[in-house]
Design a protein that fits this description.
By secondary structure, the chain is mainly α. The chain is 75% helix and 0% strand. The N and C termini lie far apart (72 Å).
Amino acid sequence: MEGVDVVRELMRIEKKLEHIEQLLNELLERGESYALMKLSEESLKEFLEDEPDLYSERDLKVRYR
């Protein structure tokens, strides 16, 4: 009986480790996505500041206060 409990416990631990690995991978992907978005934002900032606006305030149909 003890051997069966050990095997069952090892299987439970393995499932938890797989779940933790999955969560860590998702966290890393989110971090990478955030880093890429931040890099794009910073690198395009100067370029976009020099570009003319496509729309003016007069083009707005609804104004919010």
